[in-house]
Amino acid sequence: MIYTLALNPAIDRTMWVGKMDFRTTTRVRRESRYPGGKGVDVSRVLTAMGISNVALGFVGGFVGEELECRLGYEGVRTDMIKVSGETRTNIIVNETSNGRHLLLTAKGPRVDPYELGTLFRKIENLSDPTMMAVGGSLPRGIHPDTYRRVITIMKRKGAITILDADGENLRSGIEACPDYIKPNRHEMSELVGRPLSTLDEFIQAAEEVRSWGVGTVLVSLGPDGMMLVADGQRYLASPPKVDVVNSVGLGDSAVAGFMYGLANRLDLKDCLIHGTAAGTATAMKHGTARANKDDVMKIVPMIDFKNLMEDEK
Question: How far apart are CA 68 and CA 244, in angstroms?
């Protein structure tokens, strides 16, 4: 079974306005609410692409109940741990006049030690896990070492591990040598402690991170696509130009598309192509992590793929 883990999931309250005006009242033209959080987003896209999975994480209060109900409505299977605090609500404001968006992320509930202990017992008791995506922010009370511990348990169980986090959460998780990590441009630069701009610089940084024990490094490069660096493999998949109406959840969708490839035993080239296509599909959809299988498959043949090892010869 494939699992995702979101320790600090959220409801993304998304609003569309013509233009933000700080001098007077800004009228909301449309509003929607979506389940959010990295693991949750990955589960939603995997489910929409026909890949069975279970979303794990913490939920609490009325917002937590809403989150589980909305996931169930989309067909996403969950096995959440109830906590005493209230699941967070994020605010996303999209300006239709210029395509900009404002994302306000809440801290989330404080998780008590016994609630964290319940999580580890649940993970230890997972039967036959084949893959787990771990990532996102941590709620208050949870130490970044949690990601290292989770990945260590899953690797001991023989599961493929994918880490998508930033800052100390990413550095701590890497200590467990995950099979895959997927930072973006900024997160990769922060991880190696220097600014990165050119493709060669990102490749060198990825090889450096691989020397720390990471199996494969994926770097999302925004409109330039996604790069993959593995043992003897360096690829770049670039999306076609599309009308972007959303920039929230693109990286999570890319992880889901990549996992779709792994679940179907595709080679890394095709996993990368499907990941890039999934991220692009979500960019064309209003709301958070909205790509579905038809959307993704339409874009797959439009992805420009380059074997960077051949370009180096």
Answer: 29
Taking the alpha carbons of 204, 209, 211, 216 in that order, is the dihedral positive or negative? negative
- For residue 51 the two structure tokens come to 């890949």
Listed in order, strand segments (DSSP E) in 170-256 are 180-181, 216-220, 226-230, 233-238
Q: Is pLDDT of 65 > 70?
A: yes
Q: Are 102 and 17 in contact (CB under 8 A)?
A: no
Q: What gap in Å lies between CA 298 and CA 219, rounded to an integer?
A: 23
Answer whether 39's CB lies under 8 Å from 184's CB.
Answer: no
Q: In this structure, what DSSP letter does residue 224 have?
A: G
Report which secondary-structure segment, H or E, holds 102.
strand 101-104
CATH of 1-142, one of 3.10.410.10, 1.10.357.20, 3.40.50.300, 3.40.1190.20: 3.40.1190.20
Q: How far is CA 312 from the centre of its chain?
A: 31
At residue 312, the pLDDT reads: 62
pLDDT in the model for residue 227: 97
Q: Compute the distance between CA of residue 24 and CA of residue 229 in angstroms, rounded to an integer.
A: 49
313 has pLDDT over 70: no
Identify whether the C-beta of residue 29 lies closer than 8 Å to the C-beta of residue 48: no
> Which residue, 125, 135, 133, is CA-closest to 164?
135
